[in-house]
Structure formats: structure tokens, C-alpha cells
Amino acid sequence: MARVLIRLVLVATFVAGVAGPTTALRPVAAATQETFAGRVAALSEPGGYFDTDNLISNERSFLHVAPELRALAKQAGRNGVFLGVGPDQNFSYIGHVRPSLAILVDIRRDNLLLHLLFKAVFAEAHTRVEYLALLTGREMAPPDSGWEVSPIDRIVKYIDGAKPLPSRGVSMIQSRLMLGILAFGVPLTPQERQTILAFHQRFISAGLSLQFNSTGRAPQYDYPTYRDLILEVDRKGGRQSFLASEDDFQFVKSMHAKDLIVPIVGDLAGNGALAAVAKYLAATNRQVSAFYTSNVEFYLFQYGTFPRFVANLARLPHQPGSLIIRSVFPSGRAPTAMSPGYNSASLTQPIQTLLDGYAQGRYRQYGELVR
What we know:
- The chain is α/β, with parallel strands linked by helices.
- The protein has a 6-stranded mixed sheet, sandwiched between helices.
- The radius of gyration is 20 Å and the shape is globular.
């Protein structure tokens, strides 16, 4: 009987998602920016393709810039905004920057779907260990065991040793998460709901050993696992991921609860998303304090669209000292030294320095940008 009830809940969930064709076909122009779904729609543009699943980062060095972001948070004030691309490395940056709003823009609509999953998990989890247990489909840790003050090493050890839930338990979790996702109000097709569940299944199947994947290619030997990223450190050896600190985790959770982490679809060099973000920030008296671009600029140079990105960047209201955060890989033929044991380098640059330099004829090649 319990299994029948679970199936009925799942069926009801999927029916609720497709009931009412006017909801699924709601035009962007009709959306307002007063709701989470309205902001997603109003700030997004049509998506594009990139050949990675990007469920987690492949940038082992991503927390080397954490001390700079902590310093930036002290001067950014209450109206600072964080912009970023990609999956949950953004949560660590948000924990350090402490913005009033975060907008996560990615050319892949799949990234939006992934962030809806993360948002639902945050809503269900009270602590870091609950978050990881829900995301990886593991048994919940015993309550009242000091998890709120536990070091991340202890939490990782628990998740690694916890038993995967049986299929019935996974179905119950996924049903609850999907109900939460649908309540966010973002129109989803049946295929997109299946994609979200498939993403969750990847986390469940691989656990903390999950790695970044590119289409048709196995993970590279130096790609970090999710475990590696959770345990990653800054240059002084301090754990700095959002899961290493209960305070940072709770800050990100509170941002999600207030619908202040908004994933949208857009090309950094496109005509729609960043222009819409610029207008929204100006209208709400906000300014960008940090913009994480990963290694997207490498591809913008390849495609010849970097000038359009710079034009979009110039439209964004930004603060003195606002930073670009970028990742550099040796495969990008960049003249940047990697720290021993790292497959990437993470760099920062003041946004105004990039804009001024470009206006003066600099940064016409990727190597010059990341030198």
C-alpha cells in the first residue's frame, strides 16, 4: 500500500506540473519580476548548447580567491549583487561575498534546472549534513549529534559511510523535492522534470565521488570529485566551501528561502539576459560587487564575441572595487602558472580595470586577459 501511495503522489506531482496549458505556455512578456518565477522569466533569454553536464565544477582552485571575496564583502555594502555561471561553486562565493541578491546566468537551460534541484534541497535541509544526505540519497544522520558545529571532515566521513536509501526512500525524497520545485512556479515540460530527476540520480549513484563530465568524454584524470570540492582550501589551507561553514550554509539557505538566488538562462555575450539584468539592477538601486565568469571568456574569444561581453559588462551598475572572478586552464593555452597539485588557476580582476583596458585597446587576446 505504501508503494502505491508513493506512486500516486508522484503521478499527482507530474499531473500538477502539466495541468493548465496556459501555465506552461505563459509568455515571458506577461511575467512580472515580483515573484521568483517572474524574475527567472523576465531576465532570461533563449538558451544555447554547451557540451558539458556541469553538475559540479572541475575547477579545483576555485577557493583560492576566498580571502579577496571576504575583503570585498566588507566594502560592498548592502546593495552588492553577485553574478555567476555554472553550478554550486557559486554558493561558496555567495557565502564569502554576502550579497543582497545573486543572479546565476548560464547559456544552458539545464543549469537552471539543476539550480531548481539545489533550491529544493536547501528548502528541505536544516543543516549541512541533511543537505548532503538529501542530495546524495543517503540515510539521515542521527539528530542532536552536534552536526551544526561539526567540521566538514566529519560530515564528509558520515556521508561516505552512510547507506544509500532503498528505491522506496529515494522515490519519497524525489516526490517531495519535485513538489517543492513545482511550487517555485517556473514552467517545466515533462522532459525537463525528468531531467531534474536524472540529475538527482547522478548525485545519488556517484555520491561524493561525482565528477564533472563532458559529452562523450570520460572525466579527466585531474578533475576533482565533489568530495574534493567540499574539502577544498584557500592558499593558507583553510576550508572555504559553503559546506565547510554552518554559518555560510545558513546564509545561502536564507538567500534561497527569500528567493534571492535567481538562476536564469542567458549568453554572457547575448542581447537579452545581461541587458535585462542591468536594467533590473538600476531600477532596484543595486550594483554588482562580484561576477564569476569561470573560463567562459576563453570561449568568447574563440567565437569572436568577447567585445559583446565587454559591452554587456559596461551596462551593469557596479561598485568601485567590483571584481571579475575567472578560472584559467592550461588547455586554454593561457600563460598562467598553476599551483602544484591544481588543474586550474583562479584569478580576480577589477571590473573597471577590464573596461578601461579594453577601451584603451588592450585585452584583444585571451592570453593578455589572463596573464
